[in-house]
Design a protein that fits this description.
The protein is α+β, with helices and mostly antiparallel strands. The protein contains 14 helices and 20 strands. The longest helix has 18 residues.
Length: 467
Amino acid sequence: MSAAAIRTVTNANGSARPKRAMLSGWGRYPALECDVYRPEKFSELASIVASNSTSLIARGAGRAYGDAAVNGDNRVVDVTRLGRMLSFDPDTATLRAEAGVTLDEIISVFLPRGFFPAVVPGTRYVTLGGSIAADIHGKGHHRDSSLASHVASFDLMLASGEIRRCSREENAELFWGSVGAMGLTGVILEAEFKLRRVESAWLEGEVIRAENLDAALEAFERIDGEYGNSVAWIDCASTKGRLGRSILNAANFAARDDLPPAMRQEPFSLKPKFSPSVPFDLPNIALSPFTVRAFNDVLYAVHRKKAGRARFDYQFFFFPLDSIHDWHRIYGKRGFVQYQCVWPEAESRAGLIETLEAISASRRGSFLTVLKKFGAQEGMLSFPMPGYTLALDFPVAEGLMEFLDRLDAMVLARGGRVYLAKDARMRPETFRAMYPNLPQWQQIKASADPNNRFSSSLARRIGMLPA
Protein backbone atom coordinates (compact mmCIF):
# COMPACT_ATOMS: atom_id res chain seq x y z
CA MET A 1 0.00 0.00 0.00
CA SER A 2 1.32 3.43 -0.86
CA ALA A 3 1.69 6.13 1.76
CA ALA A 4 -1.00 8.14 -0.02
CA ALA A 5 -3.52 5.36 0.58
CA ILE A 6 -3.16 5.57 4.38
CA ARG A 7 -5.31 7.91 6.43
CA THR A 8 -4.89 8.73 10.10
CA VAL A 9 -7.78 9.69 12.37
CA THR A 10 -7.17 12.66 14.69
CA ASN A 11 -8.88 13.03 18.05
CA ALA A 12 -10.41 16.29 19.24
CA ASN A 13 -7.40 16.96 21.43
CA GLY A 14 -5.11 16.78 18.42
CA SER A 15 -3.43 13.46 19.20
CA ALA A 16 -3.40 10.95 16.36
CA ARG A 17 -4.63 7.40 16.55
CA PRO A 18 -3.62 4.85 13.97
CA LYS A 19 -5.21 3.35 10.92
CA ARG A 20 -4.85 -0.40 10.60
CA ALA A 21 -3.38 -1.12 7.17
CA MET A 22 -1.49 -3.70 5.14
CA LEU A 23 2.01 -2.43 4.40
CA SER A 24 4.88 -3.70 2.29
CA GLY A 25 8.02 -2.36 0.72
CA TRP A 26 8.33 -1.53 -2.97
CA GLY A 27 8.75 -5.21 -3.80
CA ARG A 28 5.29 -5.89 -2.28
CA TYR A 29 6.73 -8.84 -0.38
CA PRO A 30 6.10 -9.44 2.45
CA ALA A 31 2.84 -7.55 3.13
CA LEU A 32 1.96 -7.27 6.83
CA GLU A 33 -0.75 -5.60 8.88
CA CYS A 34 0.44 -2.60 10.91
CA ASP A 35 -0.92 0.31 12.95
CA VAL A 36 -0.02 3.38 10.88
CA TYR A 37 0.28 6.96 12.17
CA ARG A 38 0.74 10.05 10.01
CA PRO A 39 1.65 12.95 12.32
CA GLU A 40 1.59 16.48 10.93
CA LYS A 41 3.61 18.09 13.72
CA PHE A 42 6.68 17.11 15.71
CA SER A 43 4.61 17.42 18.88
CA GLU A 44 2.29 14.69 17.56
CA LEU A 45 5.30 12.55 16.67
CA ALA A 46 6.74 13.01 20.18
CA SER A 47 3.43 11.88 21.68
CA ILE A 48 3.39 8.76 19.50
CA VAL A 49 7.00 7.89 20.35
CA ALA A 50 6.40 8.44 24.07
CA SER A 51 3.33 6.20 24.10
CA ASN A 52 4.22 3.09 26.09
CA SER A 53 2.64 0.52 23.80
CA THR A 54 4.01 -1.67 21.02
CA SER A 55 7.27 -1.11 19.15
CA LEU A 56 7.44 1.38 16.30
CA ILE A 57 9.48 2.19 13.20
CA ALA A 58 9.57 5.32 11.05
CA ARG A 59 8.55 5.02 7.41
CA GLY A 60 9.16 7.44 4.57
CA ALA A 61 7.97 6.93 1.00
CA GLY A 62 7.95 3.13 1.30
CA ARG A 63 10.68 2.62 -1.31
CA ALA A 64 12.80 0.18 0.70
CA TYR A 65 12.14 -3.10 -1.11
CA GLY A 66 11.59 -5.53 1.75
CA ASP A 67 10.36 -5.21 5.34
CA ALA A 68 12.71 -2.54 6.72
CA ALA A 69 9.87 0.01 7.09
CA VAL A 70 7.22 -2.56 8.00
CA ASN A 71 6.39 -3.56 11.57
CA GLY A 72 3.94 -6.44 11.54
CA ASP A 73 1.21 -6.15 14.23
CA ASN A 74 3.03 -3.12 15.62
CA ARG A 75 3.29 0.62 14.96
CA VAL A 76 4.59 2.43 11.89
CA VAL A 77 5.03 6.20 11.84
CA ASP A 78 4.70 7.69 8.36
CA VAL A 79 6.78 10.90 8.37
CA THR A 80 5.92 12.14 4.88
CA ARG A 81 3.86 15.04 6.28
CA LEU A 82 6.97 16.31 8.08
CA GLY A 83 8.73 17.41 4.91
CA ARG A 84 9.62 21.10 4.91
CA MET A 85 12.82 22.59 3.55
CA LEU A 86 14.13 24.82 6.33
CA SER A 87 17.19 26.73 5.11
CA PHE A 88 19.79 26.83 2.36
CA ASP A 89 23.23 28.42 2.19
CA PRO A 90 24.19 28.89 -1.48
CA ASP A 91 27.80 29.70 -0.58
CA THR A 92 28.35 26.28 0.99
CA ALA A 93 25.54 24.49 -0.95
CA THR A 94 24.19 23.28 2.41
CA LEU A 95 20.49 22.45 2.77
CA ARG A 96 18.65 21.82 6.02
CA ALA A 97 15.35 19.97 5.64
CA GLU A 98 12.93 17.78 7.54
CA ALA A 99 13.14 14.05 7.14
CA GLY A 100 9.92 13.67 5.16
CA VAL A 101 11.04 15.75 2.19
CA THR A 102 11.77 13.68 -0.92
CA LEU A 103 14.74 13.89 -3.26
CA ASP A 104 12.25 14.65 -6.03
CA GLU A 105 11.10 17.76 -4.17
CA ILE A 106 14.69 18.82 -3.53
CA ILE A 107 15.62 18.39 -7.19
CA SER A 108 12.53 20.28 -8.34
CA VAL A 109 13.48 23.28 -6.21
CA PHE A 110 17.25 23.33 -6.48
CA LEU A 111 18.20 21.96 -9.90
CA PRO A 112 16.92 25.13 -11.65
CA ARG A 113 19.21 27.04 -9.27
CA GLY A 114 22.24 24.96 -10.19
CA PHE A 115 22.33 22.38 -7.38
CA PHE A 116 21.76 18.62 -7.29
CA PRO A 117 21.96 16.01 -4.48
CA ALA A 118 25.48 14.68 -4.12
CA VAL A 119 24.19 11.10 -3.93
CA VAL A 120 20.98 9.71 -5.44
CA PRO A 121 19.75 6.10 -5.63
CA GLY A 122 17.84 4.61 -8.56
CA THR A 123 14.64 6.49 -7.68
CA ARG A 124 14.08 10.11 -6.72
CA TYR A 125 10.92 9.27 -4.76
CA VAL A 126 12.69 8.52 -1.48
CA THR A 127 12.64 10.65 1.65
CA LEU A 128 15.66 12.29 3.21
CA GLY A 129 15.19 10.41 6.49
CA GLY A 130 14.89 7.07 4.74
CA SER A 131 17.94 7.87 2.62
CA ILE A 132 20.06 8.45 5.73
CA ALA A 133 18.65 5.39 7.49
CA ALA A 134 19.61 3.25 4.48
CA ASP A 135 22.81 5.25 3.81
CA ILE A 136 21.94 5.28 0.13
CA HIS A 137 24.52 4.95 -2.61
CA GLY A 138 24.35 5.78 -6.29
CA LYS A 139 26.10 5.54 -9.61
CA GLY A 140 28.94 7.72 -8.34
CA HIS A 141 29.92 5.75 -5.25
CA HIS A 142 33.40 5.01 -6.61
CA ARG A 143 34.09 8.77 -6.26
CA ASP A 144 31.47 10.18 -3.90
CA SER A 145 30.90 7.31 -1.44
CA SER A 146 27.47 7.08 0.20
CA LEU A 147 25.11 9.76 1.45
CA ALA A 148 26.66 9.76 4.93
CA SER A 149 29.79 11.38 3.48
CA HIS A 150 27.70 14.45 2.60
CA VAL A 151 25.56 14.70 5.74
CA ALA A 152 26.84 17.26 8.25
CA SER A 153 24.34 16.47 11.00
CA PHE A 154 20.84 15.27 11.81
CA ASP A 155 18.47 15.55 14.76
CA LEU A 156 17.38 12.20 16.16
CA MET A 157 14.38 11.62 18.45
CA LEU A 158 15.15 8.82 20.87
CA ALA A 159 12.65 6.47 22.53
CA SER A 160 12.79 8.67 25.63
CA GLY A 161 11.59 11.65 23.60
CA GLU A 162 14.98 13.33 23.89
CA ILE A 163 16.29 14.92 20.69
CA ARG A 164 20.01 14.68 20.01
CA ARG A 165 22.04 16.45 17.38
CA CYS A 166 24.25 13.83 15.72
CA SER A 167 27.37 14.60 13.69
CA ARG A 168 30.97 13.50 13.40
CA GLU A 169 31.82 15.81 16.31
CA GLU A 170 28.68 15.61 18.45
CA ASN A 171 27.23 12.23 19.49
CA ALA A 172 29.51 10.67 16.88
CA GLU A 173 28.77 7.09 17.93
CA LEU A 174 25.07 7.69 17.48
CA PHE A 175 25.72 9.34 14.10
CA TRP A 176 27.60 6.31 12.78
CA GLY A 177 25.22 3.95 14.56
CA SER A 178 22.23 5.50 12.76
CA VAL A 179 23.41 5.79 9.14
CA GLY A 180 22.64 2.47 7.48
CA ALA A 181 20.82 1.14 10.56
CA MET A 182 17.35 1.26 8.99
CA GLY A 183 15.74 3.56 11.57
CA LEU A 184 16.40 1.40 14.62
CA THR A 185 18.10 4.02 16.82
CA GLY A 186 15.31 6.61 16.63
CA VAL A 187 13.35 8.89 14.32
CA ILE A 188 15.36 11.29 12.18
CA LEU A 189 13.62 14.67 12.35
CA GLU A 190 15.73 16.88 10.12
CA ALA A 191 19.18 16.89 8.57
CA GLU A 192 21.80 19.23 7.17
CA PHE A 193 23.64 18.02 4.09
CA LYS A 194 25.50 19.29 1.05
CA LEU A 195 24.34 19.48 -2.55
CA ARG A 196 26.65 19.59 -5.56
CA ARG A 197 26.88 22.49 -7.99
CA VAL A 198 25.89 21.72 -11.57
CA GLU A 199 25.58 23.86 -14.70
CA SER A 200 22.87 21.91 -16.49
CA ALA A 201 20.33 19.13 -16.25
CA TRP A 202 22.36 17.08 -18.75
CA LEU A 203 25.23 14.64 -18.54
CA GLU A 204 27.91 14.06 -21.18
CA GLY A 205 29.49 10.67 -21.52
CA GLU A 206 29.43 7.46 -23.49
CA VAL A 207 27.58 4.20 -24.02
CA ILE A 208 29.79 1.11 -24.05
CA ARG A 209 28.77 -2.34 -25.29
CA ALA A 210 30.67 -5.10 -23.49
CA GLU A 211 30.53 -8.58 -25.03
CA ASN A 212 31.09 -10.36 -21.72
CA LEU A 213 31.82 -9.77 -18.05
CA ASP A 214 35.58 -9.32 -18.48
CA ALA A 215 34.98 -6.64 -21.09
CA ALA A 216 32.52 -4.90 -18.76
CA LEU A 217 34.93 -4.92 -15.81
CA GLU A 218 37.72 -3.69 -18.07
CA ALA A 219 35.49 -0.82 -19.19
CA PHE A 220 34.66 0.13 -15.60
CA GLU A 221 38.35 0.26 -14.73
CA ARG A 222 39.24 2.20 -17.87
CA ILE A 223 36.71 4.97 -17.27
CA ASP A 224 37.16 5.16 -13.51
CA GLY A 225 39.25 8.32 -13.60
CA GLU A 226 37.25 9.99 -16.36
CA TYR A 227 33.62 9.72 -15.26
CA GLY A 228 32.05 10.38 -11.89
CA ASN A 229 28.95 8.30 -12.65
CA SER A 230 28.74 4.84 -14.17
CA VAL A 231 26.32 1.94 -14.28
CA ALA A 232 25.82 -1.16 -16.41
CA TRP A 233 22.77 -3.14 -17.37
CA ILE A 234 23.89 -6.75 -17.44
CA ASP A 235 22.31 -9.68 -19.27
CA CYS A 236 21.96 -12.37 -16.64
CA ALA A 237 20.51 -14.87 -19.14
CA SER A 238 23.62 -15.07 -21.32
CA THR A 239 26.08 -17.95 -20.93
CA LYS A 240 29.57 -19.14 -21.84
CA GLY A 241 31.53 -16.58 -23.88
CA ARG A 242 28.72 -14.04 -23.57
CA LEU A 243 28.32 -14.45 -19.81
CA GLY A 244 27.78 -11.01 -18.29
CA ARG A 245 27.46 -9.09 -21.55
CA SER A 246 26.53 -5.53 -20.67
CA ILE A 247 25.57 -2.04 -21.73
CA LEU A 248 27.52 0.49 -19.68
CA ASN A 249 26.54 4.16 -19.35
CA ALA A 250 29.15 6.57 -17.98
CA ALA A 251 28.88 10.33 -17.67
CA ASN A 252 29.57 13.61 -15.89
CA PHE A 253 27.25 16.57 -15.51
CA ALA A 254 27.67 18.75 -18.58
CA ALA A 255 29.02 22.28 -18.31
CA ARG A 256 26.74 24.87 -19.85
CA ASP A 257 29.34 25.82 -22.47
CA ASP A 258 29.59 22.18 -23.59
CA LEU A 259 25.93 22.10 -24.62
CA PRO A 260 24.76 22.93 -28.13
CA PRO A 261 23.99 26.66 -28.53
CA ALA A 262 20.23 26.11 -28.58
CA MET A 263 20.36 24.37 -25.18
CA ARG A 264 22.58 26.91 -23.45
CA GLN A 265 19.74 29.39 -23.09
CA GLU A 266 17.84 27.06 -20.76
CA PRO A 267 20.36 24.45 -19.56
CA PHE A 268 18.05 23.16 -16.81
CA SER A 269 14.99 22.78 -18.98
CA LEU A 270 13.80 19.35 -20.13
CA LYS A 271 10.93 18.67 -22.47
CA PRO A 272 7.94 16.98 -20.80
CA LYS A 273 7.95 13.24 -21.37
CA PHE A 274 5.20 10.72 -21.63
CA SER A 275 5.20 8.67 -18.42
CA PRO A 276 3.17 5.49 -18.82
CA SER A 277 1.90 3.51 -15.89
CA VAL A 278 1.30 -0.17 -15.27
CA PRO A 279 -2.44 -0.14 -14.54
CA PHE A 280 -2.77 -3.68 -13.19
CA ASP A 281 -0.73 -6.62 -11.96
CA LEU A 282 0.67 -8.56 -14.89
CA PRO A 283 0.26 -12.36 -15.02
CA ASN A 284 3.22 -14.47 -13.96
CA ILE A 285 3.92 -15.58 -17.53
CA ALA A 286 4.84 -11.98 -18.43
CA LEU A 287 8.27 -12.50 -16.82
CA SER A 288 9.00 -16.06 -17.89
CA PRO A 289 12.57 -17.14 -18.75
CA PHE A 290 11.61 -16.81 -22.42
CA THR A 291 10.40 -13.20 -22.16
CA VAL A 292 13.39 -12.17 -20.03
CA ARG A 293 15.83 -13.68 -22.55
CA ALA A 294 13.99 -12.04 -25.46
CA PHE A 295 14.04 -8.65 -23.72
CA ASN A 296 17.78 -8.94 -23.07
CA ASP A 297 18.49 -9.86 -26.69
CA VAL A 298 16.49 -6.92 -28.00
CA LEU A 299 18.02 -4.45 -25.57
CA TYR A 300 21.56 -5.49 -26.42
CA ALA A 301 20.84 -5.35 -30.16
CA VAL A 302 19.26 -1.89 -29.92
CA HIS A 303 22.47 -0.50 -28.42
CA ARG A 304 24.56 -1.71 -31.35
CA LYS A 305 24.13 1.68 -33.05
CA LYS A 306 23.90 3.71 -29.85
CA ALA A 307 27.38 2.89 -28.55
CA GLY A 308 29.81 5.79 -28.41
CA ARG A 309 29.56 9.37 -27.21
CA ALA A 310 26.22 10.23 -25.68
CA ARG A 311 24.26 12.95 -23.92
CA PHE A 312 21.77 11.97 -21.21
CA ASP A 313 19.21 14.01 -19.37
CA TYR A 314 19.47 13.50 -15.62
CA GLN A 315 16.11 11.73 -15.37
CA PHE A 316 17.09 9.03 -17.85
CA PHE A 317 20.58 8.56 -16.46
CA PHE A 318 19.81 8.46 -12.74
CA PHE A 319 16.13 7.44 -12.56
CA PRO A 320 15.14 5.44 -15.66
CA LEU A 321 12.43 3.42 -13.93
CA ASP A 322 10.74 6.50 -12.45
CA SER A 323 9.39 7.20 -15.93
CA ILE A 324 7.06 4.19 -15.56
CA HIS A 325 4.57 4.66 -12.75
CA ASP A 326 3.90 1.59 -10.58
CA TRP A 327 6.45 -0.44 -12.54
CA HIS A 328 6.61 -2.96 -9.70
CA ARG A 329 3.24 -4.28 -10.85
CA ILE A 330 4.93 -6.07 -13.76
CA TYR A 331 5.95 -8.72 -11.22
CA GLY A 332 2.36 -9.65 -10.44
CA LYS A 333 0.39 -9.92 -7.21
CA ARG A 334 2.98 -12.06 -5.46
CA GLY A 335 5.57 -9.29 -5.74
CA PHE A 336 9.30 -9.62 -6.13
CA VAL A 337 12.52 -9.69 -4.17
CA GLN A 338 15.35 -7.39 -5.10
CA TYR A 339 18.67 -9.02 -4.28
CA GLN A 340 21.69 -6.73 -4.06
CA CYS A 341 25.07 -7.97 -2.99
CA VAL A 342 28.64 -6.69 -3.04
CA TRP A 343 32.01 -8.42 -3.10
CA PRO A 344 35.44 -7.12 -2.06
CA GLU A 345 37.44 -5.94 -5.04
CA ALA A 346 39.73 -8.99 -5.10
CA GLU A 347 36.72 -11.36 -5.12
CA SER A 348 34.38 -9.40 -7.39
CA ARG A 349 35.18 -11.07 -10.72
CA ALA A 350 34.99 -14.61 -9.34
CA GLY A 351 31.89 -13.75 -7.33
CA LEU A 352 30.13 -12.26 -10.34
CA ILE A 353 30.93 -15.27 -12.53
CA GLU A 354 29.77 -17.69 -9.86
CA THR A 355 26.52 -15.80 -9.27
CA LEU A 356 25.68 -15.21 -12.94
CA GLU A 357 26.30 -18.87 -13.77
CA ALA A 358 24.04 -19.94 -10.89
CA ILE A 359 21.27 -17.60 -12.07
CA SER A 360 21.52 -18.77 -15.65
CA ALA A 361 21.43 -22.42 -14.60
CA SER A 362 18.41 -21.80 -12.37
CA ARG A 363 16.42 -20.21 -15.22
CA ARG A 364 15.33 -17.50 -12.79
CA GLY A 365 16.42 -14.70 -15.08
CA SER A 366 16.22 -11.25 -13.56
CA PHE A 367 14.37 -8.71 -15.69
CA LEU A 368 16.49 -5.88 -14.26
CA THR A 369 20.13 -6.56 -13.44
CA VAL A 370 22.46 -3.68 -12.59
CA LEU A 371 26.22 -3.65 -12.04
CA LYS A 372 28.08 -0.78 -10.34
CA LYS A 373 31.51 -0.13 -8.91
CA PHE A 374 31.94 0.89 -5.27
CA GLY A 375 34.73 2.92 -3.70
CA ALA A 376 35.70 3.84 -0.14
CA GLN A 377 33.07 3.59 2.58
CA GLU A 378 32.65 4.50 6.25
CA GLY A 379 29.85 3.30 8.50
CA MET A 380 29.03 0.62 11.00
CA LEU A 381 26.16 -1.05 9.12
CA SER A 382 26.52 0.66 5.75
CA PHE A 383 26.28 -1.75 2.85
CA PRO A 384 28.98 -0.68 0.33
CA MET A 385 32.62 -1.77 0.33
CA PRO A 386 35.30 -1.26 -2.33
CA GLY A 387 34.43 -3.70 -5.09
CA TYR A 388 31.52 -4.46 -7.40
CA THR A 389 27.82 -4.69 -6.58
CA LEU A 390 25.09 -6.54 -8.44
CA ALA A 391 21.35 -5.85 -8.05
CA LEU A 392 18.72 -8.24 -9.41
CA ASP A 393 14.93 -8.52 -9.33
CA PHE A 394 13.31 -11.95 -8.91
CA PRO A 395 9.53 -12.54 -9.01
CA VAL A 396 8.37 -14.38 -5.90
CA ALA A 397 7.93 -17.99 -6.94
CA GLU A 398 8.30 -21.50 -5.59
CA GLY A 399 11.89 -22.28 -4.56
CA LEU A 400 13.09 -18.67 -4.78
CA MET A 401 13.99 -18.28 -1.11
CA GLU A 402 16.05 -21.46 -1.12
CA PHE A 403 17.84 -20.30 -4.26
CA LEU A 404 18.65 -16.94 -2.66
CA ASP A 405 19.98 -18.77 0.41
CA ARG A 406 22.43 -20.44 -1.97
CA LEU A 407 23.47 -17.06 -3.37
CA ASP A 408 23.92 -15.77 0.19
CA ALA A 409 26.30 -18.62 0.96
CA MET A 410 28.38 -17.93 -2.15
CA VAL A 411 28.53 -14.19 -1.46
CA LEU A 412 29.45 -14.75 2.19
CA ALA A 413 32.19 -17.23 1.31
CA ARG A 414 33.91 -14.47 -0.68
CA GLY A 415 33.61 -11.85 2.05
CA GLY A 416 30.60 -10.05 0.58
CA ARG A 417 27.27 -8.94 1.97
CA VAL A 418 23.63 -8.18 1.11
CA TYR A 419 21.94 -4.77 1.31
CA LEU A 420 19.47 -4.42 4.19
CA ALA A 421 17.32 -1.86 2.34
CA LYS A 422 16.63 -4.48 -0.33
CA ASP A 423 16.41 -7.59 1.84
CA ALA A 424 13.17 -9.49 2.48
CA ARG A 425 14.38 -12.96 3.49
CA MET A 426 17.96 -13.19 4.77
CA ARG A 427 18.63 -15.55 7.68
CA PRO A 428 19.94 -14.26 11.07
CA GLU A 429 23.15 -16.30 10.96
CA THR A 430 23.92 -14.96 7.48
CA PHE A 431 23.34 -11.38 8.58
CA ARG A 432 25.62 -11.73 11.60
CA ALA A 433 28.42 -13.15 9.45
CA MET A 434 28.05 -10.47 6.75
CA TYR A 435 27.98 -7.55 9.20
CA PRO A 436 30.78 -8.14 11.73
CA ASN A 437 30.22 -4.71 13.34
CA LEU A 438 26.84 -5.87 14.65
CA PRO A 439 27.98 -6.34 18.31
CA GLN A 440 29.44 -2.84 18.36
CA TRP A 441 26.23 -1.43 16.88
CA GLN A 442 24.10 -3.34 19.37
CA GLN A 443 25.91 -1.59 22.22
CA ILE A 444 24.99 1.80 20.72
CA LYS A 445 21.41 0.61 20.18
CA ALA A 446 21.15 -0.63 23.79
CA SER A 447 22.36 2.73 25.10
CA ALA A 448 20.04 4.83 22.91
CA ASP A 449 17.02 2.49 23.09
CA PRO A 450 17.42 0.11 26.06
CA ASN A 451 13.91 -1.36 25.71
CA ASN A 452 14.05 -1.90 21.94
CA ARG A 453 11.12 0.45 21.38
CA PHE A 454 12.31 0.98 17.81
CA SER A 455 11.91 -2.27 15.94
CA SER A 456 10.79 -3.57 12.56
CA SER A 457 9.92 -6.80 10.85
CA LEU A 458 13.39 -6.75 9.29
CA ALA A 459 15.11 -6.24 12.63
CA ARG A 460 13.30 -9.15 14.29
CA ARG A 461 13.63 -11.45 11.30
CA ILE A 462 17.42 -11.18 11.03
CA GLY A 463 18.15 -10.80 14.76
CA MET A 464 19.45 -7.23 14.76
CA LEU A 465 18.16 -6.22 18.18
CA PRO A 466 20.32 -6.65 21.31
CA ALA A 467 19.05 -9.14 23.89
